[in-house]
Structures are given as C-alpha cells and as structure tokens.
Amino acid sequence: MKEFQDLALITPEEVENLLSLAQRLETHPEPRALEGKILALLFLNPSLRTLASFQAAMGRLGGNSFVISPDMSIHGLETRRGIVMDGQAAEHIREAIPVIASYADALGIRAFAEREELDHDLADKDYMAFRELVKIPLINMESAINHPCQSLADWKTMDDLGMPRVGGKFVLSWAYHPRALPLAVPSATVHMAAMRGMDVTVLRPEGFELPESIMKKAQEAAQFSGGSVSETDDKAAALEGAHVIYAKSWASTKHYGHLPNDEKAREGLKHWCINNSWFDTTQKDARFMHCLPARRGIVVADEVLDGPRSVVIPEARNRMYAQMAVLHQMLGTK
Known about the structure:
Layout: E1 3-4, H1 12-27, E2 38-43, H2 49-60, E3 64-68, E4 77-78, E5 91-92, H3 93-102, E6 106-110, H4 118-122, H5 125-131, E7 138-140, H6 148-160, E8 169-174, H7 184-195, E9 199-203, H8 212-225, E10 228-232, H9 235-239, E11 244-248, H10 259-265, E12 287-289, H11 302-305, H12 312-331
Parallel strand pairs: 1-7, 2-3, 2-6, 4-5, 6-7, 8-9, 8-11, 9-10, 11-12
Helix pairs in contact: 1-12, 2-12, 6-7, 6-12, 7-8
C-alpha cells in the first residue's frame, strides 16, 4: 500500500484485509513489526485523537514518529501558490513537505477545508496539491472532503458490535453546532456505511443537504454492496428501525462559504440535538456514534453521550487499531 487516501480507492477485499489485520493486531500485538521505521505527521490543523492515535499506533508496532505543526516551533507555513512571502509565514509548504518526507518512511497530512468555495473543497484541491510533493507512502489524516482513518475505525467498531451489514439501517444525522464545520466526516461516513452494505439515510434540515457528488459516490458504493442511500428531513421516518444514529455537524451547502447566511440558516435548529427521545423507534440495541469532539448539550445530550447506547470511546480507540493496520500494510515486512 503506497497511499491511504479514500476507502473508495481500495477494493472491498482490501478493506476486509485491513479490518482483519486491525483485529489481529488488537488481540495479538506485534511490537517489533515496524522497528526502525519513522512516521512523519504534518498537522496543518489541530487534533487530539488523530495525533495521539497515530503516535500510539506507531509506538505499539515498534516504530517512531515525529510531529510538525505551524503552532509548534516553526514560524508559520504558507500554503498559497504564487504568493509573495512578505507576511508572517517564513516557509512555504512546497519546501516543507519534501523536507519533512525526506526524514521519514511514511507521511501523514491533516489539512482541513478552507470552506470558501464548495467546488474547490469537493475536488480536494489542497490535499491533491500536497500529494504531488510526496514520494513516500502517504496517509490522509483528514482533508477537505475525506477522513478515511475515521471511517475505517467506524467500520471496525460496528463489526465489533455485531451490527448487521446488508439490512442494517444507518442514520447519519446532522446536528446543531454554532460553527460551520467541514464536510470531510459526513462525506466519508455516508460512503463507508454504503460500502459496508447498509441502508443509509442522511437526516438533515432543509439547506444542509449533502452535495450531489457525495451522494452519488455513496449510491454507487451501495449498488455494489447491496445497500442503499437516501436523504430526508423526515426525522420520524429516518429513525424508525435504525441500528445506528451517527451524529455530525456540517456547514450549509446552500450557503457554503457565506458565514452570515450559514448562521442565519441554522437559526431555530438547536432542537437538532440528539437525546434519548431520538431512540424511541429505533432498534432496541441501537447505538450512538460520533467521531468526537462532541459539544455536550449542543450536538448530543449527556443522557445519550454518557448512556449505554454511546460507543464513542471504543470508536476512538479503534482509530489506533485501524491505523496500526494501515501502517503495517504500508511499512511492514512482506
């Protein structure tokens, strides 16, 4: 494996192999598998789980890692092309990435969406530009429109819980948030659940529809796997019989890049906060999932997040095991 960019770019068999490897590494550790290997982690945006889980994953496999972030010990990184660098940033990303990569055996990059132009972010142009500068194995640790590491961990979490694949009902629900958040997690999540073979419903208020290209990609995955993908603002219909409610906030695609209009669009939507009543008509053993961080009392009520339905902690721990599998495939001895 030379790159882990998008679950859609690897075959279902390769996904199954990664999941099996993650399960094996969880129960039968290989503490010297990556001895002598170095992983570089470039964080252009802040992180808790991604940073900690990658460092832990590399350490558990016997390798080492180092972290670079503009907020650490360097004087800012410029990412714009054709810029005259007479401002704060002292180094350009076009030199920084090749230098960082030259010290490592694999590189992970985390770079959020600018959230200014929808077409720009849907094309993942920033990540693709960074990708051109890398000659070693590369991991997408979250880009403008994708988060494959989170999705692989979510898939493993549902497998661990015995959640059905074909016939399983997965609800990706928009939730209120005071800020306009990126599309990476909802985009990756709807595709992951469809690829898993589940019947996926995107539940959202008017104005927060997922872009057509994201829905089409997920629908194509569902056709292959035996699942289905639909979108609605009908909460009652969406939640009935659900096995999973996966909450996530995202920006209004109708007002993408226009913060005042986005803020106005979410006025009156604070009731889109997941509480116990959302599970009244779901499966009895339905679970609550979220990639974290989750704002308590805003995105989800304490009664759900602290309750028996919540699997957010196992979900977060599976980030480490899923990434161990990716690193093992990339850097392990064949």
